[in-house]
Amino acid sequence: SFADYYIRFIAHFVRVYENAAPLFARDSFRWSSSNPKNIEHYIGNGRKMKDVLGLPFHKALAQIPESESEESGWPYDVTD
Asked: What SS3 state is found at 33?
C-alpha cells in the first residue's frame, strides 16, 4: 500500500538524524492516524512532544510492539 511505502520512505531518511529513529516510524504513523486530536495537541505544544522529550531509549523501546523493536532489516526487507 502507499502508506506502507511512505512509512518505509520516512524511516529510511530519519536515520540521518537518529540511527534508532526508524524503529519508531510505524508507531508514529499509528499515533498520528489514530486520533486527530493528537496532531492538534502536538501543534498546540509548539510542535514538541513534551511527553517523549528526554525519555530514555529503553523506555521508548518498551512502548512499541516487541515484534517491531526486534526487526533488524526493516524498512528494507519487504515481505509482500
From this structure: helix
**29 neighbors 3 (Cβ within 8 angstroms):** yes
Cis peptide before 56 (omega within 30 of 0): no
pLDDT of 66 reads 94
Q: Residues 7, 25: contact at Cβ < 8 Å?
A: yes
Q: How many helices (H) and strands (E) does the chain have?
A: 5, 0
Of the candidates 4, 44, 7, the residue with the CA atom closest to the CA atom of residue 22: 7
Above 70 in pLDDT, residue 35? Answer: yes
Position 80 scores a pLDDT of: 55
Q: Which helix (H) or strand (E) holds 41?
A: helix 36-44
